[in-house]
Design brief:
Helices cover 47% and strands 14% of the residues. It is an alpha+beta fold. The strands form 3 sheets. A two-stranded antiparallel sheet has the order 1-2. Strands 3-4 form a two-stranded antiparallel ribbon. Strands 5-6 form a two-stranded antiparallel ribbon. Helix 2 runs antiparallel to helix 4 and helix 6 crosses helix 7. The longest helix has 21 residues. The two termini are 26 Å apart.
């Protein structure tokens, strides 16, 4: 999945811009797998610089070339490569053309026991993957689970919650309990597996995928 930004809907619907996106996406697929961050699946700047579109230009050069043709600023922002032994579900929101969208998400699902997801069972998993991708677009999780929260994000949130709790004037042991309780709300808001499923808020995402 690649992100290329332009300024207007008019250009977003332009054939040259849409063709560019296809070239950029294919170039990203050809990138060296070692250039992909194993945690975020994002292609590194060096990995991006190394790949070429069919004309021989780099991704950034190809974007600049089309920008000059349509006379509008545009920018290649980022690319993600998702490798899995399972299935990938995807969703594109506000799609001007097949395979393109203003907002998009991809979700990889694998069998816990490593078994194949082909056949009828695989179709059900692919359907679930698409629904989960729709959930991601709607709920905007920042992390997969609690263990994925970065130390920086965790520290910043705990600091803010501690300051808020301290302002109540309660004892330190009560403040600690308040912070722990509010951290649970933080995980429910920003961690995918802790979030309430948008299509059935009586279930968490972790319950849906079991």
């Amino acid at each position: 999945m690649v992100e290329v930004n332009c300024e207007t809907d008019f250009v977003a619907r332009n054939d040259k811009f849409q063709s560019l996106l296809g070239l950029v996406a294919q170039a990203a697929l050809d990138a060296d797998p070692s250039a992909v961050d194993p945690t975020t699946s994002e292609l590194s700047a060096d990995g991006i610089a190394a790949v070429k579109v069919p004309s021989g230009m780099s991704i950034n050069e190809a974007v600049a070339d089309v920008a000059g043709t349509v006379r509008e600023n545009m920018q290649f922002r980022r690319a993600f490569l998702l490798h899995t032994t399972g299935v990938v579900g995807s969703y594109l929101h506000t799609s001007p053309s097949p395979g393109l969208g203003r907002i998009g998400a991809m979700v990889a699902l694998e069998a816990a026991d490593g078994s194949s997801l082909d056949g009828e069972g695989g179709e059900k998993v692919r359907d679930l993957g698409k629904k989960l991708a729709m959930h991601v677009v709607a709920a905007k999780p920042q992390f997969l689970d609690r263990h994925s929260v970065t130390p920086e994000a965790l520290e910043a949130e705990k600091k803010m919650l501690t300051e808020q709790a301290a302002a109540t004037g309660k004892p330190a042991n009560i403040i600690e309990k308040m912070v722990m309780g509010r951290m649970g709300k933080y995980y429910e808001e920003f961690c995918l597996l802790d979030q309430k499923y948008v299509m059935d808020d009586g279930k968490s995402i972790s319950a849906v995928v079991k």
